[in-house]
Amino acid sequence: MDLNWLLDFECLARTLNFTRASDERNITQSAFSRRIKALESWVGLPLVNRDTYPVQLTEAGQQFLPVAVEVVGQLADTRRAIRDADRGDREFVRFSALHTISVNYLAPRIEKMQLQSPGLRTRVISDSLATCCDLLAAGAVDILLCYYHHSVSPKIDEETFERKDLARDPLIPVAAKDAARAHNWSLDRTDGPPIPYLAYERLSFLGIVVENTVGKRSLNVETIYVDSLVETIKRRLLQGGGFAWLPQTAVLDEIVSGQLVAIGDADWSTPLTISAFANPTLLEGSASDIWNQL
């Protein structure tokens, strides 16, 4: 059982529309449908009648819905109570952030803040975009940090949550210098052996951004590895195993030191914005101070 399955089912029961529900849950419709089917498999009966429009809950779905809502509510209340008890007199500022933003941007910022304010305590949850958005919407974190791009943006109610754009972080195609020079890798070349490509999951946030950046241009590449984590792809990249599009903050030190080089000009890069989201009216104490400093 996955808590996300219950949250998905609760959302679908409210919207009665797979497309709208998947948008609200910030995942693809195919992934959303798989999770609903997984829940139905766990229950042992169909919960949704897909033959009607709009979809309707089956009798089993109607019986299961109040249980799902109660379980989700109890878990949220229990988590909040445990965290409040854990805080004691300490006030933690809670962040959710994409893995690469947490490692390459947020951690250094927090270190500087704590040098200026030694009493500052923070808790960071690094996870997928969908989970980070869910945590903010549920009030489990104070501030969310994620990427913004013109081709795909997080599904966040900007009437409820204020957005601050914090930094530009271009997504650039890079490779290990020795491998790139030895094989004359360049995205502008269409002849010769294909360049080994370390790719993101196609429907992940960065996967969609890369696809939008490439557009209809042809690439002489061969995908040899697929992952959703920037740091994992970077590790393989440094070993000379191919090229990848990586955020500049993740590879700046290696570019400066000469370990990595770009294998395409500016046309093959695309701007990303690191953005923060919060509801300032709900922030208190240190969380409010940090939000004002961002």
Question: What does it look like?
Answer:
- By secondary structure, the protein is an alpha/beta fold.
- It folds into three domains: 82 residues, Arc Repressor Mutant, subunit A (Orthogonal Bundle), CATH 1.10.10; 98 residues, Periplasmic binding protein-like II (D-Maltodextrin-Binding Protein, domain 2), CATH 3.40.190.10; 98 residues, 3-Layer(aba) Sandwich (D-Maltodextrin-Binding Protein, domain 2), CATH 3.40.190.
- It is 46% helix and 22% strand.
- It is built from eleven helices and twelve strands.
- The strands form four sheets. It has a five-stranded mixed beta sheet, sandwiched between helices.
Keywords for this structure?
294 residues, alpha/beta, Arc Repressor Mutant, subunit A, D-Maltodextrin-Binding Protein, domain 2, 3 domains, 5-stranded mixed beta sheet, 3-stranded antiparallel beta sheet, 11 helices, 46% helix, globular
